[in-house]
Amino acid sequence: MTKSKTVNEAEPVVIKKYANRRLYNTETSSYITLDLLSQMTREGREFVVVDAKTGEDITHNVLTQIIMEEEQRGKNMLPVNFLRQLIAMYGDSMQSMVPQYLEASMDAFRKNQQQFQEAMKGAFGGGPLAEIAKRNMQMFEAAASAFGTGVPGMPGATPTPPASEGSKDEEINDLKAQLAALNAKIDKLS
User: Fold this and answer.
1) What is the pTM of this model?
2) For residue 152, what are the contacts with CB-CB under 8 A and spacing of at least 6?
C-alpha cells in the first residue's frame, strides 16, 4: 500500500552547488539563484544543497549566505547586539544548547504570529466588533428610514421614481417658491 506524499512529506529537493558557484536544481533540471532558494524557503519547500564534487551537505552554509544577502539589501532583521551575543556564544559551554533554543523560540514566535492573525480575522469576521458594527448599521438604517426615503443604495431605501417632464416643472416651481419664502424671512431678520 503506497501513500501519496503531501508537500510537507515530500522528499527535499536536491540542489547541487558547483565549483563555479552555480546552483543546479535536480528537480527542474535548471540552474537557479539564491533568490529562488530564498523564495522556496518562504514557501516552505524543503531542499538540501550538496557540493557537486564531494557530495557534502552544505545547506547550512547556503542558508547563511541567503541571510547575509538579505541583510546587505537593507532588510536587517538581526540587530547588531544580537549578532554580538551570538558570536560570543561560539566556544562557550552553552553553545550546544543555542541551536535548540533558537529553533524553539522561532517556533513559538511563528505560533504567536499565526494566533494573532487568526484573532484579527475573528475580530472583524464574526466577533464582538462585528456585532457592534452590525448594530450600528441597523441604527443608521432606522434613522435614515425615519427621514423618508432613506439613504440611496442602503438596504431598505425606497428608490425615487423617475420624474416626468410635468412633475419636474412643478418641483422647480415649488423650490423657487420655497427659496422666495426663505429670502423673505431673511429680509425680515435683517
Assistant:
1) 0.56
2) 159, 160
